[in-house]
Design goal:
By secondary structure, this protein is of the alpha+beta class. The protein has a single domain, classed as Deoxyribonuclease I, Chain A (4-Layer Sandwich). Helices cover about 20% and strands about 35% of the residues. The protein contains six helices and 13 strands. The strands form two sheets. It has a seven-stranded mixed sheet with strand order 1-6-7-8-9-11-10, with no helix packed on it. A six-stranded mixed sheet has the order 4-5-3-2-13-12, with helices on one face. The protein is globular and about 40 Å long. InterPro entries: Endo/exonu/phosph_ase_sf, Endo/exonuclease/phosphatase, GPI-anchor_lipid_remodeler.
């Protein structure tokens, strides 16, 4: 099931200065629980401040509820960025899922339900972001643990793309452990494969679970992992950052 809404506000309709370079990051925040077992949203906010990206795609974000804190609200207050949520679990007691934080106006949002059979609910948060006069389509997701689940989810995401000419970036925790996995091969048919350094686990990174894909590929400038003393402890994933050129 897909839900869509348009976002219009006075701030969103203001003209923006041209942007020559975009810094976009993906970060699995692990529920704001660090590798020391402590729930500490302020550490996640500190990592975001270190990175200072134009757009953040976040996974495993607590979004509030009667028995759960709203970590996205905390991060939005700490960063003063625009926040968009994409819950994959949405009950009165607990809301949880993907989120986007950005310094730019958000023109529209779609959420895609990627849940597969009886496995953990999954989804994608699909946002149109006005980056200084050029709209980028940013799809933030967190795929499942089973290979069959990931293949079905990728096929569903790819079927949703219907915006020719608009730059598109797909990013998040793809949970693909194998470099030549079928999930990654399927994505190559639509996206440029951005280099994927190891991001998990932070104690000793062995796997490139966090990925960024872009179309068109010539927009990519460079990619890097954000490794600092704070990011090592704040989550079990390191943030992955990509720099892109903008034609606006």
């Amino acid at each position: 099931m897909t839900f869509m809404r348009d976002i219009e506000s006075n701030a969103a309709l203001e003209s923006q200065p041209p942007v020559r370079e975009l810094k976009i990051a993906t970060y699995n925040v692990h529920g704001a629980v660090g590798i020391d077992g402590k729930f500490a949203p302020e550490r996640i906010g500190g990592v975001l401040a270190e990175i200072d990206a134009d757009i953040f795609a976040l996974q495993e974000v607590p979004l509030g509820g009667s028995s759960a804190p709203n970590v996205l609200d905390i991060l939005q207050r700490m960063t003063s960025l625009n926040a968009v949520e994409g819950p994959t679990l949405d009950t009165p007691a607990r809301r949880y899922g993907n989120a986007v934080l950005t310094r730019f106006p958000v023109r529209g949002v779609r959420t895609l339900d990627l849940s597969f059979r009886s496995r953990e609910p999954r989804g994608a948060l699909d946002a149109d972001i006005d980056c200084g006069g050029e709209v980028w389509r940013v799809v933030a997701t967190h795929l499942g643990l089973a290979s069959s689940e990931r293949r079905a989810q990728v096929d569903q995401v790819l079927r949703s793309f219907d915006t020719p000419g608009m730059p598109v970036i797909l990013l998040g925790d793809l949970n693909e452990w194998f470099v030549h996995g079928r999930t990654l091969r399927r994505l190559v048919t639509h996206f440029y494969r951005v280099p994927a350094p190891r991001t998990f686990p932070t104690r000793y990174p062995l796997f490139a679970l966090d990925r960024i894909w872009v179309h068109p590929g010539e927009r990519l400038m460079r990619v890097e992992v954000h490794r600092t003393p704070l990011s090592r402890i704040a989550s079990d994933h390191y943030p992955l950052i990509a720099h892109f050129t903008s034609t606006a």
